[in-house]
Predict the structure.
Amino acid sequence: MRTLTLVLLVAACGSKAAAPATTTTPSNESSELANTAPAPAAPAGLAVTAIEPDKGNTDGGTYVRIKGAHFIDDGPRNAKIYFGSRQGTVIRFASDSELIVEAPGGKPGEVVDVLLIFEPGGELKLPRAFTYVEKNDSGPSINDLNTNP
């Protein structure tokens, strides 16, 4: 289990001119946006503390529990979860502190960022938080037995 503590903080806009905003797509491409309105304020305390498991099948279908705080306590919220550039399927908000997601497939050994987009609420990025592993369907065999005394 990988334990993470991320808290999304949003600064209030003052009277100074705002610098150009930068957006990042799930494929990590950045672009500058000139004279854009500030992002909506995030609910105080929206946080992610853990992702379990932090490894999943290359074929996809691994159910991942994302743990944190203030997921739904302050009202209904939509969520999109990306594993690298691939979108996972949100199964349900199990509680205010747990979100269940089905991970998409990936390449063996691939380590990806997990990007959580909450609407309303903003984005949280978990760097290198999930690794794809090949499923072992073979099970134990006679060769697994140690016959040496």
Confidence is low (pLDDT under 50) at residues 1-42.
